[in-house]
Amino acid sequence: MKLVVQRGALAAVAFAGALLSSAPAEAQGAGAKADVLVIHATDCDKPSVDPAIGEAPPLKYKCYRLVEKKQLALTKGQASATPLPNGRTFQLTLTDTTADKRFKVSAAISQPDNKGFMTLANITAEPNKQFHVGGFAHGGGVLVLAIRVSP
User: Fold this and answer.
1) Is the Cβ–Cβ distance between 82 and 72 less than 8 Å?
2) Sheet order of strands, 131-138 included
3) 141 within domain boundaries
4) 9, 32, 47, 70: most buried by Cβ count inside 10 Å?
5) DSSP 76
6) Is 5 part of a structural domain of the chain?
7) Do the beta carbons of residue 33 and residue 92 sit within 8 Å?
8) Where are the beta strands (DSSP E) in the chain?
């Protein structure tokens, strides 16, 4: 499995995998799509992982709770975005597909004043392999996005 990551100015975590859409709209069957889990990671007395998440992201937090689950359509060259519970917007752009059918995506988050986006990572994602981006402060912890891109 290959993964290419370039970090932006924001704290971000990028692991093995995929992407998102320009309005929180359901994928419409054509082209690629991204399944996105919005996870709230916190410290707590009794460690727990929401069963809907599956395996917890490899972070220092003890508790992981699923906040939202979305499926977003991806179109090459068009940004797909979704609002986050912390008031910011997450954006994923399908920039290309490779000859071996992997997806090149660019992940970004809106500026705190919502005037533009900051690039978090450029990722080459294998189909149906999950990757994470995160580190967005929220509710005494952070938001982590688990993303899986599929054709």
Assistant:
1) yes
2) 48-49, 63-74, 32-42, 141-150, 131-138
3) yes
4) 32
5) T
6) no
7) no
8) 32-42, 48-49, 63-74, 79-83, 89-97, 103-110, 117-125, 131-138, 141-150
User: Quick check: is 91 in a domain?
Assistant: yes
Give pLDDT tens digits for 28-56.
Answer: 334 799 999 999 999 999 999 999 998 88
Contact 13, 3 (CB under 8 A): no
Q: What is the dihedral of CA 128, 131, 79, 137, to 10 degrees?
A: 150
* Dihedral angle over CA of 87, 123, 144, 27, nearest 10: 70
The residues that bridge with 60 in the sheet, in sequence order, are none
Please tell me the total count of domains within the chain: 1
Burial class from Cβ neighbours inside 10 Å (0-12, 13-18, 19+) for residue 80 reads buried
pLDDT of residue 150: 94
The whole-number pLDDT of residue 13 equals 36
| φ, ψ dihedrals at 38, nearest 5° | -95, 115
Structural domain containing residue 137: 32-150
Helix extents (H) in 15-108: none
Beta pairing partners, 141: 138
The rounded Cα 109 to chain-centroid distance in angstroms is 10
